[in-house]
Amino acid sequence: MATFAVTGSASGMGAATAALLTAEGHTVIGVDLRDAQVIADLSTPEGRAAAAERILELSGGALDGVAAVAGVGPDMPNAAGVMSINYFGVTALLEALRPALAASGAGRAVVIGSNSASTVPLVDDKLVELALSGDEAATREHADAAQAAMPAEITAIVPSIGAYASSKLAIARWVRRTAVTPEWAREGVTLNVIAPGAVLTPLMLGSTGKEEDLNADEFPTPMPLGIFGRPEDIAFWVHQFLKPEARYTTGAVLYVDGGTDAAMRTDAQ
Ligand code: NAI
Question: Do residues 196 and 13 make contact, with C-beta atoms less than 8 angstroms apart?
Answer without folding.
Answer: yes
